[in-house]
Design brief:
Helix content: 25-40%
Largest sheet: 6 strands, parallel
Distance between the termini: 16 Å
CATH class of the largest domain: Alpha Beta
Number of helices: 15
CATH superfamily of the largest domain: Phosphoglycerate kinase, N-terminal domain
Number of domains: 2
CATH topology of the largest domain: Rossmann fold
Bound molecules: adenosine monophosphate
Length: about 400
């Protein structure tokens, strides 16, 4: 988009304003809005007008009893005051994302003005990627800019199909999208080595494809969190009541074998903090990972593992982190995740490049107060995961095609 002439043009920008709201409809975390500001300001500074479209929540999945959408809860109008403040511009609002009102308001904008369209997901046609609906959206702009990396893995009308209504020279990536892709590409295509991936979180099944890809890309793969117990059981260990996906035991062994064949080192927890119930105030013990007694479950990596993982991280030049190492939402089981957050921050201070992707690891690094001590925090959980897995994101493809 840096090369576009926005002067006197209406730029239709797909942003990700899917922000959390409290019961009073106040924004509790405005990161996603903040991240879209540079793109909007760039267009305004070049003499363009900006028409913003986004989704907010899943109103079609939470219909009211009479079958209608809950406009009061999911309206993007809640975002207008804060957005106006951040931009220093009175943001206008259209009560529908397509149709006469949206179209006429977009045509009446002067350069420097901003219009926010109502929640695209008020219409079921959005998620279905319906052509006629996408054509309606496209009428609100002369140029289409996609800056919603967080939804680029969805082939929805406003993220993907709408782009087909613009010529190649009329569509492009926003600054956030460009930065997200550049950071992911840095890890995928030109990492300084050793490249270490740290995976965690609840399930192996969510990250199988990523794991397989990583066995072709990395020097080291660290596996913690709930997913580590499937690996521990696959090796013949006792894991008590810990999280496990029995149908993935063979695949876990296959991944270990594949890594070995590719000279990739896989690091699994050697000790574990176990709990007698899934609760912050559970009784705890530290035991070897493959020796968890019945009635107990592993909720965090143990102290020896933290040290061993940190050593690998210290020696890395590129680090990718996706997934917490334990149930970090419970303070007593957040030590492993915090140790990893500190190790990643320290390695970054010593010159490593670090990319944090995935909602929970982002929350964990921010909770540890280290958000500004890593190289890049991705805004796109699912989208980043799919991109790293090697999938083509529909929202990206639609701009390039
Ligand atoms: P994911 O969305 O797959 O990255 O999973 C994140 C979730 O995994 C977080 O809510 C963590 O509490 C959870 N998690 C991490 N480690 C464990 C564990 N050992 N047992 C149960 N849940 C875990």
């Amino acid at each position: 988009m840096d090369q576009f002439d926005f002067n006197n043009k209406r730029a239709l920008v797909r942003v990700d304003f899917n922000v959390p709201l409290n019961d009073k409809h106040e924004i509790t975390d405005d990161t996603r809005i903040q991240k879209a500001i540079p793109t909007i300001q760039h267009i305004l500074s070049k003499g363009g007008a900006v028409i913003l479209m986004s989704h907010l929540g899943r109103p079609q999945k939470k219909l009211k009893e009479d079958g209608s959408v809950n406009v009061n809860k999911y309206t993007l109008k809640h975002v207008v005051p804060h957005l106006s403040k951040l931009l220093g511009v009175d943001v206008q609002f259209a009560s529908n994302c397509f149709g006469a009102e949206a179209k006429s308001k977009s045509f009446l904008l002067n350069p420097g003005q901003v219009l926010l369209l109502e929640n695209t997901r008020f219409h079921k046609e959005e998620s279905k990627g319906e052509e006629i609906f996408a054509a309606g959206l496209s009428q609100c702009g002369d140029i289409f800019i996609n800056d919603a990396f967080g939804t680029a893995h969805r082939a929805h009308a406003s993220t993907t199909v709408v782009a087909s209504h613009f010529k190649p020279e009329e569509k492009g990536f926003g600054l956030l999208m460009k930065t997200e892709l550049a950071n992911a590409d840095r890890v995928l295509n030109s990492p300084e080595r050793p490249l270490t991936a740290i995976l965690g979180g609840a399930k192996v099944s969510d990250k199988i494809q990523l794991l397989e890809r990583l066995t072709e890309l990395c020097q080291n793969i660290i596996i913690g969190g709930g997913m580590a117990y499937t690996f521990a059981k696959a090796k013949g260990g006792k894991i008590g009541e810990s999280l496990c996906e029995d149908e993935y035991l063979d695949l876990a062994n296959e991944i270990v074998a594949k890594a070995k064949a590719n000279n990739v080192d896989i690091y699994l927890p050697t000790d574990t903090v176990i709990a007698d119930k899934f609760s912050n105030d559970a009784k705890t013990q530290i035991v070897p990972t493959g020796e968890i007694p019945d009635g107990w479950e592993g909720l965090d990596i143990g102290p020896d593992t933290r040290v061993a993982f940190a050593e690998v991280i210290q020696q890395s030049k590129t680090i990718l982190w996706n997934g917490p190492q334990g149930v970090f939402e419970f303070e007593n089981f957040a030590h492993g995740t915090n140790a990893i957050a500190h190790a990643v921050a320290k390695a970054t201070a010593y010159g490593a490049y670090s990319l944090i992707g995935g909602g929970d690891s982002v929350a964990a690094i921010n909770k540890a107060g280290l958000g500004d001590k890593v190289s890049f925090i991705s805004t796109g959980g699912g989208a980043m995961l799919e991109y790293l897995e090697g999938k083509t994101l529909p929202g990206v493809k639609a701009i390039i095609d």
